[in-house]
Specification:
By secondary structure, this protein is mainly α. It has two helices and no strands.
Length: about 90
């Protein structure tokens, strides 16, 4: 039977790979969440540019691309400055 210290060392060795795997998984999930937020903001900008361009100018083509660019800028600014739910507590 192992002593208490030996048992702790053995348990730590077994759990180390699981902890590293969990840390990689959480980092990957964080990246995907940020990508999803960026995509949603860009899509909203695209739709708003299309609607406003069609309403005011009668032609949605250049305005939907401008709206997409503005949505991407807002998404990148939001990613840079962060949101309260992304900040550690």
């Amino acid at each position: 039977m192992l002593s208490r210290e030996q048992a702790e060392v053995a348990a730590e060795a077994l759990l180390k790979s699981k902890r590293q795997q969990l840390a990689r998984k959480q980092a990957n999930l964080q990246k995907w969440r940020l990508r999803r937020h960026r995509m949603v903001a860009s899509f909203i900008g695209f739709i708003m540019g299309t609607i406003l361009g069609d309403y005011f100018a009668g032609d949605p083509y250049p305005w939907n691309l401008i709206g997409l660019a503005i949505g991407l800028v807002f998404a990148l600014l939001g990613q840079h400055f962060g949101r309260p739910e992304d900040k550690p507590r």
